[in-house]
Amino acid sequence: MKKIKRALISVSNKDNLKKILSVLSQYKIQLISSGGTYKKIRKLKFNCTEISQYTGSAEILEGRVKTLHPKIYGGILSKRNNKLHKKDLLKYNFPEIDLIIVNFYPFEEILNQKNIHSKIIENIDIGGPTLVRAAAKNYNDVTVITNTNQYQNLINELKKNKGTTSLNFRQKMSEEAFSETAYYDSIISNYFNNFNNNQFPKKKIICGNLVEELRYGENPHQKSAIYSSQEKLNIKQIHGKKLSYNNYNDIFSALSISKSLPKNNGTVIIKHTNPSGVSIDSNKINSFKSALACDPISAYGGIVSCNYKINKQLALHLNKIFLEVIIANGYEKNALKILKKKKNVRLIDASNLISSKKNNYISNFNSILVQSPDNIKFDKNNFKIVSKRKPTSKQFDDLIFAFNICRSVKSNAIVIANNKSTLGIGSGQPSRLDSCNIAINKMNKFNPNKFENAVAASDAFFPFLDGVEKLVQSGISAIIQPSGSIRDKEIIKFANQTNTILVFSKTRHFKH
Amino acid sequence: MKKIKRALISVSNKDNLKKILSVLSQYKIQLISSGGTYKKIRKLKFNCTEISQYTGSAEILEGRVKTLHPKIYGGILSKRNNKLHKKDLLKYNFPEIDLIIVNFYPFEEILNQKNIHSKIIENIDIGGPTLVRAAAKNYNDVTVITNTNQYQNLINELKKNKGTTSLNFRQKMSEEAFSETAYYDSIISNYFNNFNNNQFPKKKIICGNLVEELRYGENPHQKSAIYSSQEKLNIKQIHGKKLSYNNYNDIFSALSISKSLPKNNGTVIIKHTNPSGVSIDSNKINSFKSALACDPISAYGGIVSCNYKINKQLALHLNKIFLEVIIANGYEKNALKILKKKKNVRLIDASNLISSKKNNYISNFNSILVQSPDNIKFDKNNFKIVSKRKPTSKQFDDLIFAFNICRSVKSNAIVIANNKSTLGIGSGQPSRLDSCNIAINKMNKFNPNKFENAVAASDAFFPFLDGVEKLVQSGISAIIQPSGSIRDKEIIKFANQTNTILVFSKTRHFKH
Question: Of A196, A276, A430, which is closest to B430 when you measure between CB atoms?
């Protein structure tokens, strides 16, 4: 246990300062401070020594250099049980400093508010992180507080131990202190990387704020948590059971499609991260019904994502099936009343979430694979009609729709669509032919009468003719695929022989 | 352009010091240093002022406080074009310091070598990061060098500009400096998190070293790079074309299965991150042939991963099919000679890679989902036989094998196996029944005569009887599944009626 005799306080965020000062004064802890914090402490009528007076060295460069002085760092860094250290402190009259309360210049907040580079740079704190790092290193003897939300813990600790802190407490605070300094410099480092347009720096630092620990991961024997790379996740749960890892994973899969569809027009149903149905229709009920019709069995226990506001009528339809999660860009009041009748269903408002341009990453063993998102929307201008028969405007729209959905279906992906609604989705197969068969079987099972004018999209080229043959034989009139196979010519020939429309997208949409 | 008059040097890694000192002396740059660096500079016969002499303040606490002095930080942090700053420096006789060459105490190396907590803590550098952060903040006027591999760049810059540096250069060095400090504190922060067994701290920092930029991501319109959370990736490419994003992704999928199989016994074939065949056999040729037989068509253009050393005979077999990547725990010399005949095939040695206990993470929008790996191997003791008919030892081994493979197949996953070889794998379907059909169809297509005594595993429970019915009708004699459905009783009843072996694993293996 370490009795605290002297504390250095330098805080940018001055919330709850009075509360902590009252307790420190109760234990007769001498205070050292400077600048705005010093003024605030004096205003609150507590005794305090100004740092320049304490060190005998003036504050210079408009406050850029205040605390960087051997008297301060001798006082923080000395090992209390080391005779040499003790001797040094005595010799130079450097008293021990036992408690550091510091929070940093608000670099991240400034970054979110301003875009003037010089203002942002001015908010890089130099003195603060140094005080914190020194105290955190010497946690064996020194207590470090880096966040206003730790004040109550410190107060409890001091009260429990009559003005002292335990090693356990100091170590915990040290751990959190290094989290703060690492996080702070990560934000700065990422700012510089962005500023210099350096997507892949030699050292990449990714940081996140804990949103919540989850009950478990994909499976009950895995531990899990979700973090946000910003302050918040920008999706809001407004009803229902706690979200699980798999819920979150499905929600993001759903939203990556929803956010790519025309505004206020699209419904997506997700199961196991793959869409089981997608539909665009300005009539909300029709949009939902068409998405559901693509595979009404898989939709059971799935996630429905609407990129529009849910109204009462739709809520009544949604309540007819068992859903784990409903996502929408807001809910009308009477819709919410209906949906909330089901206790467990998780209702999410995603209206604040915007499509992300950030790089995505996944980790495996000790690797991190980083890539920019697949969020470019390709259209007619990117595509080339290679068959003799040309698509009608309606067919071309459907081809673009189907190809756009492909990028959110696990590869190999085949999407059959008509009237901007999916009729069959084949996902996650090592063989493209198998994905074709799955998509065709879905269509034949649930929508056997809708194949007239139906189109198909393939996320990558057909290595053989077989998949194309199957699709055409099942009634598909138009196919879009990237091209690039040595059998492209054979496929074009077959398309012309069967009067099938064939479009080459040139781009592909693998997703794994 | 900034003429450099004065440099402060404090380096833990003293490589190539002479080289840089020669150039600095050429431009008559005054040197300040301390401790080991000072001694080394003097030994190399260059002029240098010791910091304690420069500041007039003694080095104290066995070197814990050396550079933390206003004369140093005034000299670094002053804005050269600010009159107030200039006045301060003149008043206190603090000369400008224009160049900082610092690298840190080798915290990460010490961490990898030692596990004595106090030794590790002692290697947290306080002075170094402060010098670097101050100089990096003031890059408008100051040049900061943080790594020995930047020396040549500095030399080129000084030579090009006759002893000065450009703003562009200083800004680039500043960016790299904040990368270094962020990385350094990330390693410290993660060390403390691990030390305190804190899996999910409030602020999580993930850091990586760039291994290489990749030609593109999953698709040509996506940019990509691969990072390592350690110094190296621990997999070694020894032949063939450059690895792509999709190669890496498939390699890690392959290795997560390979590393879970009995040592020196297993072959895995991967296509689009899903296994198309897996087999355990002490005979390498048989092991490969059985893995291939599960789906010889999908194996085309796939990845083969052998958790043993590849010999000549196997190399001859491997060369018969088109493979993108071959992974092995080493290659016999004459095997390598054969495999290298194919110019493009990527040969990977993964013998140094060990199964990871690290948390995995994926990002979506602004979220990071973190979870511990699904690497617990379950066996008989975890499972419960719920049918009247009991599995033979051989059947139980096959059930365990199939269930183990399930955890590496995208959900919903169904794996049919016999003699520790897969016969059919159904992956990535929203409907479990569809996954059953895919697995059965594979078996019937490629291994129509092997269903006797074949078993099936399901990664999660059957919500309906239909999937179980299909499997039994196709000739499957034993099924393992987690249980937990409201139809469990119905399924047990059906198993008993059809004399099928049914085992409840209690655990599940979702993977998305």
Answer: A276
Distance from C-alpha of B132 to C-alpha of B134, rounded to nearest angstrom: 5
- Assess if residue A214 is contained within a domain: no
Q: Which one, of B399, B427, B417, B472, lies nearest residue B293 by Cα?
A: B417
B143-145/B99-103 β-pairing: parallel
In this structure, the answer to whether residues B98 and B177 fall within a common structural domain is yes
Per the annotation, the verdict on B117 as an active-site residue is no
Q: A512 and B78: CB-CB below 8 Å?
A: no
* Chain-chain contact of B200 with A181 (C-beta, under 8 angstroms): no
d(CA B128, CA B232): 25
DSSP letters for B473-494: HTT--EEEE----TTHHHHHHH
Does residue A227 fall inside a structural domain?
A: no
* Beta carbons within 8 Å of B327's beta carbon, 6+ residues apart: B235, B251, B254, B255, B258, B303, B304, B305, B306, B348, B349, B350
Domain count, chain A: 3
Judged by CB atoms closer than 8 Å, whether chains meet at A189 and B199 is answered as: no
Residue A301 lies in a domain: yes
Angle between helices B432-446 and A432-446 (to 10 degrees): 130
Residue B471 sits in a domain whose CATH number is 3.40.140.20
Q: Would you say B48 and B33 are in contact if contact means Cβ atoms under 8 Å apart? A: yes
Q: What is the pLDDT of residues A235-270, one digit of tens each?
A: 999 999 999 999 999 999 999 999 999 999 999 999
- DSSP-assigned beta bridge partners for residue A65: A60
Residues 70-99 (B) with a CB less than 8 A from some CB of A: 70, 72-74, 77-79, 82, 84-85, 88, 92, 94
A187 and A126, same structural domain? yes
Q: For residue B316, give its domain range.
A: 236-349
**pTM of this prediction exceeds 0.90:** yes
pLDDT tens-digit profile of B412-470?
999 999 999 999 999 999 999 999 999 999 999 999 988 899 999 999 999 999 999 99
Work out the burial of residue A390: count CB atoms within 10 Å of its CB; fewer than 13 is exposed, 13-18 middle, 19 or more buried.
exposed
Structure ipTM: 0.94
DSSP letter for each residue of B355-370: ---SPEEEEETTEEEE
Residues 433-462 of A with CB under 8 A from B: 433-434, 438
A207-233: per-residue pLDDT in tens? 999 999 999 999 999 999 999 998 789
Residue B118 lies in a domain: yes
Q: Which of A176, A225, A463 sits opposite B200 (nearest CB)?
A: A225
